[in-house]
C-alpha cells in the first residue's frame, strides 16, 4: 500500500508546472552502467513492428519482467523510461523499454500512427514473451498515454493472460476526452504547443516515408490537437472522428474488468489529467486496483525532497517497492 504522506515534494517544485518539467532535465548519471542491452522487433499485426530495448537477467525465465510503455511523443529513452529500467533491472527484473508505433526513430516500421487505443499491441507482446521466451510473470508499467494503454490491455484481458502478473500506471489519461480538453486550456499552452508541433513533424516524416498515404495540406492551418486527431490520428486508427476516438480509446470503459494487481499513481495538481476522472466505480469498486491520489506531483513528476538511501524520483522508487513485494 502506498500512503499519501510518503511523498514530500521538493519545496521549490510545489508549482505543478515546475514539478512536471524539471524532472525530465534532472541528470541520471551512469544510468545504463551494468545493464546488458539488446534490441528486438515485435510484430503486433501484419506490416507493423514495435522496437523493444531489452535488458535481460542472466537467467531470464526465472526472473519477473517489467515491460515499460512511454507517453505521448515520448520514446524508450525518455527520462522516466531510463530511470525505471535501471531501478527494475538492479532489483532483479528483466526490463523491456518499448517504443510505441513510430516512436524513437521507428516511423519506418509501420505505415500507421500510434494512438491511445492500441492496447492490442501490448496484449500481443505479452503473449509473444510468454510463448517464445517462456516468461511467466510480466508486469506492464505505463506513463500517461502509456498508462492508459496498459490499463486498457489488462481490462480487455480480464485475467485470461496467464503471464500477466499486474499493471502500474502513472498519471494515465483514462478519459482522453477530458484530458485533451484540459490540455487545450490556455494555462497549458506550453504543453499543447510542444505536443502539437511534435505530432505535426511526425506526420511530415511519415509522408516522406510513405508517399501518397498522407495529405499534408490541412497541416499548416491546424491550431489544436483535437484538429490533428480528427484529421489524422482518428482516421488512421479506424475511428469515425476525434470525438469517437477519444470516447472509445479510454481505459475507463474496462477498469472494472481488471483482474490482476494494479497500481495507479496520479496527482490532484496534474495540469492535464483531471483528478475527478478517477472517482469512478471501475476503480473504487475493483479490489484489484490500488489508487494513490497524491495532492502534489504534477504530471509524471513526483520529484521528492532529499531522502536517505534513494534518489529524487519518488514514483519510480515506490513502483519498485510495490513490484518487488509481489514478485
Q: Can you describe this structure?
A:
It is a single chain. It is built from ten helices and eight strands. The protein has a single domain, classed as Rossmann fold (3-Layer(aba) Sandwich), CATH 3.40.50.1820. The protein starts with 15 loop residues before the first helix and ends with a helix. The protein has an eight-stranded mixed beta sheet, sandwiched between helices. It is 34% helix and 16% strand. The protein is α/β, with parallel strands linked by helices and 327 residues long. Helix 7 crosses helix 8.
In short:
With 327 residues, the chain is of the alpha/beta class. Helices cover 34% and strands 16% of the residues.
CATH topology: Rossmann fold
Most strands sheet: 8 strands, mixed
- The end-to-end span amounts to 15 Å
Provide mean pLDDT, rounded: 96
| Annotated CATH homologous superfamily | Alpha/Beta hydrolase fold, catalytic domain
For the record, the CATH architecture stands as: 3-Layer(aba) Sandwich
Biggest sheet strand line-up: 1-2-4-3-5-6-7-8
Q: Mind sketching the topology for me?
A:
Elements: H1 16-21, E1 38-45, E2 48-55, E3 65-69, H2 79-90, E4 94-98, H3 120-133, E5 138-143, H4 145-157, E6 164-170, H5 176-183, H6 189-209, H7 225-236, H8 242-249, E7 262-267, H9 281-284, E8 289-294, H10 314-326
Helix pairs in contact: 7-8
Attribute tags:
single chain; alpha/beta; Rossmann fold; eight-stranded mixed beta sheet; 10 helices; 8 strands
